[in-house]
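Risk register update: the risk of archive-format incompatibility is retired. Evidence:
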Amino acid sequence: MRLPVVFIFITIVLDSMGIGIIMPVMPDLIREVGNMDLSEAALWGGSLTVVFAINQFLFSPFIGGLSDTYGRRPVLLVALVVMALDYLVMGFAQSMWLLFLGRFVGGITAATQSTASAYMADISTNEDKAKNFGLLGAAFGVGFILGPMLGGLLAEYGSRAPFFAAATIAFANALFGYFVLPETVTDANRRSFDWRRANPFGAFKQMKKLPTLMPMLAVFLLLSIAFFVYPSIWAFFGRAQFDWDARMVGMSLAAYGFGIVIIQGALIRPILTRFGEKNTAIFGMCMHLLTFSVYPFMTETWHVFAFMPISVFSAVAVPALQGLMSNSVPKNAQGELQGAMGSLTAVATIVSPFLMTRVFSYFTNNDAPIYLPSAPFLLSALSIVIGLIIFSRWKPVHSSA
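Archived output:
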C-alpha cells in the first residue's frame, strides 16, 4: 500500500472516530465543566452534537471546493492541525462556551471526507479505484469501532484523556502527511472557486427530479433519524439505566460497531440473495423496531450484550433500501439519488440529537411523570413504525434505462 493511501486511510479513520472517541466521556466532562446533573447534561450534549453536525454539513462542499482551487494537500494538512488544536482546547476547557467552540470548529475540520475521497480518486488508476474506495469504506468501519473503544479505555485516566490522545494522533498524521503527501491538483485540473458549487443545500433540489422515490426517501429519513439515537443518547442512557462508566459505554459501542461491520461486510450479500431487497429491508426495519422496543425492559448489562447478536441484523435495512431506490431510477439519475440520500443523512444527524436528548432529559429529570431513560428508543420505534407503513404502500418501479 502506497504511503499517500495510508495517510488518506488514517485521515478517514480520524474523521469517523471524531465523535466516537469522546462519546464515552462526554456525560462526565459536561457535568464536570457545567456542574449539572445527567438530565441537564444530556441537553448540552445534544446541542454540542447538533453544532458539530451542522458545521460538517455546511462546510463539506465548501472545503471540497477549496481543495479544487488550492489543492488537496494544504486543505487536508491544515484541517488536521486545526483538528488537533481543537481537541487540545476541548481537553483543557473549563467552561461550556469553550466546549461549544471546540465542537463548532470540530465540525468544520471533520468535513474533509469529500476532499480525502477526491485525493483517493486523483491517485488511483481506473483499475484501482474500486479497491481504493473500498479501503475508505473500511476506514469508516475501523473508526466507528476504534473511536468508542479507545475513548472508553482512555477514560480510565480521566475525562480529558481521550481528547489529548485524539490531538496526538491528528498531529502525528499531519506530520506524516507533510512528508509523504504529494499534491495532485495541477494547472491541468485546477478550477476556480465557485460559491454556487459550495452550496450544501443544492442536493435537496435534486429530490424534485425523483418524484416516484419521495415516499422511499421519507422512509430513509425516518430510518436515519431512528438510528442516530445511538450516538445521540447511548452514553447518557447507559449511565442512567445500567450505571455504566465511560469504559463500559465505549466497549458496548465498539461491540455494536463490530457487529454492524460483520453484517454489512460479510452477511448482507447472502441475505439479499436469499430474501431479496424488499424483504430484507422489511426484516431490517423490524429488527430495529424489536430492538428499540425491548430497551425499556433491559435492567442488566448482560441483557444488552445478549441481545446484541440479534439487534445488529437491523443493519441490513439501509443497504437494502438503497438498493431498491437505486434500481428504481435510471443510470443517469444515480448521482441525484446519492446526493439526495447524503443530504437526508445530514438532516438526520442534526434532527435526531436535538429530539432524542430532549426526550431523554424530560423523562429523567426530577419532575418527570415517569422515570424512563429508554424513552428516546420508543420515539425511534415510532419512527420505524411510520416508515414501515409508508414502505408497505410503495410499489417499486424498476428502471431499464
